[in-house]
């Protein structure tokens, strides 16, 4: 009785304090944001946040591994690496000479690659000679390189967090600088997308192979996820590893990367977001001056392929010495679908914190797992994607046990309404998390830039919270029943050949 | 403190607003781009309050967002736990919050907070534990209330201790799954020593040793206001917050001071250390020796040296190893420093198995070069600029400012330490950098660790010196522990039961004449892909030779364990088996009843009855056989003398495992009776069967078959 009274009191407090957070925030926030579309099609967002004399930026390029086809898998990510290699001005001793040397590298590679890959009548001796000629040409071209000058300029200008990422959906570039370096930044960031030079391409390919070995080949869960996505998608490129298949990674050329760049690094396909101690009135003209240099090119054609309905359950098993792991995924629509907020609610309800259903069932009560969660948007959000559940079994517990426990929670979602308190927690968290997300320049730049690119309006970041607020119990049940069905499911497991024995705690 | 210069307006004026025509290539020299002085930035120092009971409080107003965040740091962390209870601080850190308070369970607190989208969490680190709070500002009183309840009246409910232990045990069972994790952990053990409070890790038995009373005792020992630092940042009024905190904390009585930590820090034993991990294609390489403490006067020169050597995109390691040689994706390193004890000099890198040696050579070359070609004036300038120009990022949020101040207070550093850092960096010269490089980075002292697949290395690790293999097998019991089940001698009943088994098999005379055994069998294994049939031709030559030829759908595979070594021969070629695998093969072979029977009077072998179990309606007696610290159990039908089941515990790389087999279909050939069918059980379920088609005692074998074929 006492508990119930307390809960009712809490609920009243939340209702009184929580609900109005949102519309207010957007109005206040909007005043700080300036949006501009340049003549070449580039979208620029500036958020004035003069908390300290620094700024962060995020360049969102609407191209990821989903833009690849077999033969060039991994190329979006490869280009991301190349965007740190400099320009005709940065990273070279003498570009005219280096350019010629790079052209020679490319010709030598084309010859070698064609010879090496010929299926019939390959002349091994000749191929080896061509390989040597190619490697010699690389050594020659390397003589013209000033190593990592691009990164060095940023380092010595006080840049921090210099990095980039490639996902299935997009490629993002970011770092932070003191706020007196806006013009230097505008020059550097536009310059690398105006005239990137594919120098050291083939050595960087080796670096990316090492990245693959680290993340995928030598990592059991990485290995499983690669196979899991490959099984879940038969048509759509979400089934390809972002890092690329080894054969493609050891085959594609600098020319391929250049072609990818010219097709997708088009101003109208990019959003640049600046957040921090910058004034839009002074920064926008600088950005226009430098980014205006990027030539306008046609926006790339949208992807044609959509994943056909799955129609049958699939199972991927990795038998490995490592401890067991479980993942299952269900196809669902893209982030722009009106139901997407419902999936977000389900993800939060199932996974967020110690009140979440999966924690309580698998970790706290059944003790079959050390961690478990369900989340929407795997491996991306732009196209129809997966809602995935995973669990890390406790020592001695099997993938069957965690699977059964996850399925029991899914059944509850399908057959019973979620409680008022649970739904309230989800909605309150969405609002609070939005506010918490506003406290970092870099985080804001990324969130706003991504929302702008994905939905055509950064305000969607705020509106998503409104959409979550409108989700009902009936919505959750409807979506759970429509989505979490056997023939829409792909399962991935690591079966351990050396299962740890159950360890009683006492 | 005024580290940043004043803005000069003129320089900030901005050039033209006209959008340049696309394609209009105006190549700009980046060196000529104007950089105005950075605008004046007054760092907002937090308010420092010291209560009479010794608690130090920092308050930092930040009105940008309607949020309040607080941290309460308490002295005492994992370095203070007893060696036999490693994991105690971590369990304390978890169960403190989840175990609730006298008034409320942890679950009730979870709901109370989640309805507010607020957090109160507890955790433990190497030198402290922490209560952290985060909420919308209107909920802060509720959140603070929970935190105070936890500080004053934690309950550590038993079921949450079990949960916390389950989390730690999960971590233990999985700690050898990822090569980088292995390398990181073992490198620290090499650097500090395996039993150092800064390197040791929890084990199943140290976790099991932690009791609720230990958590209560920890709380009594450390959680006192004089051991606490409180920092609150967010949207509040400092005067009101101070009054609130005084009301909450002033009445807490002073307690005993947290004891000061003392530990020895000898340099690690230099040498070559290796950990075998065969399921990877990339080696994780570490080079370590002892580093420095942050109050070392050479700290600033080392910061500059680190920047040149291993920090950032333009550092030597990144440029030479990654960009120039394409040998790595992740490579970095430097002389580490910690606040109140020495850090570790460490280089870490991942490279494909086939370039392991090339990578080690390249790293050694970089260490050499650090001495032979000391940093140039340009390198120094670049490193200094990088450190100084990015200095502002240490204070670019109010939360960072208060965190920095709390750190200085916690470790007893002067409040202006960070401000002085800037000046000290400005003074570092190339001579300083060369001097500290020679003093603190010593190639001869470096311990090299490689985790990987030795068979694929470009050169054997032994070319760098005597290789010490590190065994990362997860132990079940403390080293040196006498297993409680290990009997000191045999019981009469045990011997009698063994005699029955020996009689049933054909008698001691027949069995002792069997020096070797050849079996042809067909095994059907259940795998996730379906059933797999394997034909096995095995020769066991007791006690030290075994050869198995397996015909599988994937091809033929031969495994040999012999005094000359152990190897595997398959479609992929020949490779050596690690000694742990060899030992296991031979150990299993020697549990064969024929082999055991030959040791019936060996004093090293003990036979005891340890229980009873009914198998398929037959009441069996459990005969435990121990030898050389290992043991197996036979479930014997006392009427017939048949072994119906065997159960052997073994310790694999992921911890203890249990192998159970059920026997049936006895047949007699040449006077020896053996079960023809063996059903292998895993986790209580049938995992496969093996049926003996023919067996031969003392078969003829080719001596060559024990030798590794020469490499092609």
- Taking pLDDT < 50 over at least 5 consecutive residues as the criterion, the unreliable ranges of chain A are 1-21
Number of helices of chain B: 20
Helix content of chain A: 40-55%
* Major sheet characteristics of chain A: 6 strands, mixed
Termini Cα gap of chain A: 35 Å
Q: Work out the strand percent of chain A.
A: 15-25%
Give a count of the beta strands of chain A, DSSP E runs of length 2 or more. 11
* Largest interface (CB < 8 Å): A-B, 120 and 114 residues
Radius of gyration of chain B, CA atoms, in whole angstroms: 33 Å
Total number of helices of chain A: 19
The helix-and-strand class of chain A reads alpha+beta
SS class of chain B: alpha+beta
Q: Roughly what is the average pLDDT of chain B, rounded to an integer?
A: 88
Biggest pleated-sheet summary of chain B: 13 strands, antiparallel
Oligomer: heterodimer
Labels describing this entry:
heterodimer, A: 506 residues, alpha+beta, six-stranded mixed beta sheet, five-stranded mixed beta sheet, 19 helices, 49% helix, 16% strand, disordered N terminus, B: 712 residues, 13-stranded antiparallel beta sheet, seven-stranded mixed beta sheet, 20 helices, 26 strands
Describe the protein's architecture and organization.
The complex is a heterodimer of chains A (506) and B (712). Chain A is an alpha+beta fold and 506 residues long. In chain A, 49% of the residues lie in helices and 16% in strands. The longest helix of chain A has 23 residues, at 95-117. Chain B is an alpha+beta fold. Helices cover 31% and strands 30% of the residues of chain B. Chain B has 20 helices and 26 strands. In chain B, helix 10 crosses helix 13 and helix 11 runs antiparallel to helix 12. Chain B starts with 8 loop residues before the first helix and ends in a 15-residue tail after the last strand. Chains A and B meet through helix 1, helix 6, helix 7, helix 8 and helix 12 of A and helix 3, helix 5, helix 7, helix 11 and strand 11 of B.
